[in-house]
Every structure is written in structure tokens, then in C-alpha cells.
Amino acid sequence: MNTPPTASLDVVVVAYGPADALARALACLDGAYPVLVVDNSSSPATAAVARDAGATYLDPGANVGFAAGVNAALQALARHQPAGAGRDVLLLNPDARITAPELARLHGELRAHPDVACVAPAQHGAGSAPMRARWPWHTPAGAWAEAVGLTRFRLDSSRYFLGGAVLLLRAEAVAEVGPFDERFFIYSEDEDWEHRARRRGWRVRYCPDVTAEHGGGGTETDRARQQLRLHAAVERYVRKWYGPGGWALYRLGTLAGLALRLVAYPGSRRAGTARLARLYLRGPDHVARADGAVPVPAPGARLMGR
Prior knowledge:
Blueprint: E1 9-15, H1 19-29, E2 35-39, H2 44-52, E3 56-58, H3 66-79, E4 88-92, E5 96-97, H4 100-111, E6 116-124, E7 130-131, E8 134-136, H5 140-147, E9 160-162, E10 166-169, H6 171-177, H7 189-199, E11 203-214, H8 223-264, H9 267-282, H10 284-291
Parallel strand pairs: 1-2, 1-4, 2-3, 6-11
Antiparallel strand pairs: 4-10, 5-11, 6-7, 6-10, 8-9
């Protein structure tokens, strides 16, 4: 399906880490779409890659996180658009790649379904290995379903959110739902935005016939810190939507599942499971803040409600 001629979109890349991955991501688009690069690493190499690709470059002056980086891009784009002329926005990780023809197909899928707030393609890694592009919602009930092995029943049409690595947002949904919640430094900001969209009657749509490549964690080489940030974000998300009691149930369900795995897994897999269990016993967000892996939300952070 081709992009309707009346529809238009911008590509936003929140960049952090090596500039070579960004160069490959921008080259894949072949100059077919306007690109705005938000450089959370304030890197001269990233600035040069953006310039050489003809992209607009924005340096926030610090690593403000993914949500704040997206919001800065949305604000910059809005300043250069006539009132009421919002454009759809593709969020693209610097370690992800989608060709211009595939993006046109993805855009067509979005515009063909007026009640869809965002779409995402199927993703694969190096060597065509499949990568997950959609995930079960993080809920207290879901944590217990995971614990007893019911994961496969949690990805029907209403029970998943789309990851933000390659995520195309509808302009009308962005205008209604608002920007990302900057309490999420990295991870869960996509889930939170889609949750807010669904509460307003929007749907999300996975498009398995469109494909993209995703390196997976390409901007974070420290896997332990990546895991810490991920689970801290999950805690913030569950606390926001289900309160302290909901988080207590989620945490208990997660610990129950980890305890079962410690019994069932062979020795080679038990060490990582035990580390994750210790993290949940201490509280992921508390540990992440103490470690400096995620910041305490600044007084001026954009806090999006329900």
C-alpha cells in the first residue's frame, strides 16, 4: 500500500552512542523523508552524520532521555508547521533501519485505519533473526500470568503495545494524547503513551507484512545497566497506572515467577534469574536511582497524567 499523496511525515531519531549506526539508519531512508536528529550525546560525529544526510540537528545539551528527546523534537517540528497542519512522525532508533519503500507501506497502513494511533512493522536483527516489536502490557494480572506460564495468551489484538524502536505516530493522536511522559527516562514511555491513547478510544496496530531491521540495545553496551533501566521503567509505569497496591501485586507475581524459574532452570541460567530476583526484592526504581542509571524526575519534567 502506498502513502496517500495528501499524507506527510517526519522522521525523528533520538540519538545516543556511536554515530556509525545513525549513518546507516539515515542512509537507508535515502533522503525520501525529512529527518530531525536529537543528539543526547552532544557528539560532533553525530552532528556531522546528520549534516551529511541533510537532516536537521538538535542538541539538547545533555542526555535528557528518550521521552524528553522525542518531546523536544515534537516541539521543534510544531514551530515550523502552520497551525492545524500536523504531520505524522516516525520514531526511529539509531540502531534500527527501515527502507523508504517499507516506510511508505507502513505509512499507508496507518492512514488506512482512521482509529489507529500508531503502527509498527515486524523487525529482525542481523541474519534475519526475528526481533520482538510488540509486548504484553505490564499489569499486575499479567505478572501472575507470566509466573504460571500463560505468556502465549497475552498477545491478542487488544493485549499488546508496540515498542518505540520503529514506531509511526498519527498526527491527530499526538495532538489529542499529548507528548511523552518525561518521568520515563528510557523504556515504558511508548507503553505509557499508547495506554493513554487507548483510554481515548485509539487503537494500536502491528503490521507484520512491513519489515524493518533492529540491532537491539545498540545504544547501550552495558547489559546490566540496560536491564536495570528497563525494570525501573516498568516499576514507574505500573505505579502510575495501578498505584502502590498494583505495584505490590506485580512485584510479588514477578518474584513468584522468578522463584519457579530458579527451581526449573539449569545452573547456567540460574545466576541471571537470581540477580533479577534480588533486584525485585530491593525495588528496581530505587536501585536504578541509587546507581545513577535513571535520574530522579526533574522539577521541570513534563509529567503526563491519565
